[in-house]
Amino acid sequence: MSTTTALPAAGNGSQAPATAAPGTLRGDPRGRERAAWLLAAVVVLVLLTGTSLAVGARDVPLGTVWQALTAFDPLNGDHAVVHARIPRTVLGLLAGGALGLAGAAMQGVARNPLADPGIIGVNAGAALAVVAGIYLFGVTTFTGHIWFAFTGAAAAAIVVYLIASLGREGATPVKLALAGAALSAGLSSLMNVILVSSQDTLDRFRFWQVGGIAGRDWSVLLPGLPFVAAGALVVLLAGRTLNSLALGDDVARGLGQRVGLSRAVVALGVVLLCGTATALAGPIGFVGLVVPHAVRFLAGPDYRWILPLSLVAAPALLLGADIVGRVVLLPGEIPAGIMTALIGAPVFVWLVRRGKGAGL
Fold it and tell me: Are 270 and 117 in contact (CB under 8 A)?
């Protein structure tokens, strides 16, 4: 994995100054274009949300969906189907938004356009913690998975940051990437040792490992809401910080940034978002990698726009993948984690070949 140490001019050749007025059209000459993309993403997300409530093994007309939401009749079978799909749709919105924000922030912290939250060992830490919870404590519920996965993700991120901070230069992007890759390999090996030694643990774990948003209810979603909200707040407020970090550590220090502290705060937001999303929906790949890349291709390198656009576009991708997975193999379905890989991989290859989305 390669990293860049400065803000390249790849793509449209523009870079947003860290001192520009945040989020205003006056300080951002491309503000109207970016606002139009954000509005379009919101419209697409609303449409996909409605489609998620309507489409499945039993299709429901959109008019009936609206009636089920505004005037629920418990004796109406279509209304019951719509209400059964609400937790699944809400989870798609939460997990997708969390993964999109986490991916965009991680690429900014690591200054690596091919980075995703897995670079700091979040997914590996969450997976090992879930396996340990199943093997040692017999955890079988999704609510139990939440706490183990979140704890594992946070612990892995802290260990990676501490290892990368050793030495005179501190936690540089290269050291973060190397420490994250090494820890991920080690944690994955430990997880495989447990899985090989316990068939029962393997049987329970494999359903979570695939990644998906089906089969969850409010008892799973509600415990994760505070973590997602806190992580989203931390990351969304870090747009100007990420712009400064993208210019390089020396320039960021010259602009008054405390580079180590800034990276630690943003990394905390990433852990909250990605750890909770992984706990709720399993290790869903490509969402945190492809969406920020596509957003950067459309809106440029300014993180004050990349972050909110990723927050909206990522759940649209996850819901779209889930909807396709419901209908391609009726009466069965393909988990969303598999569909995001099938959809995201060719899109990512196209973006990289175009070249404009590859630079930070």
Answer: yes
Contacts of 154 (CB under 8 A, 6+ apart): 125, 271, 275
pLDDT of residue 17: 42
Q: Where are the domains of the chain?
A: 31-342
- pLDDT for 41 equals 93
Contact 133, 144 (CB under 8 A): yes
The pLDDT of residue 22 is above 60? no
Give the global pTM. 0.80
Both structure tokens of 345 = 């991989």
Give yes or no for a contact between 301 and 7, defined as CB atoms under 8 angstroms apart: yes
**Tokens found for residue 79:** 């209304």
197-208 pLDDT, tens digit each: 877 777 667 766
Give the fold, CATH level 3, of 31-342: ABC transporter involved in vitamin B12 uptake, BtuC (1.10.3470)
Whole-angstrom distance, CA of residue 154 vs CA of residue 132: 15
Which amino acid appears at position 209 of this protein? Q
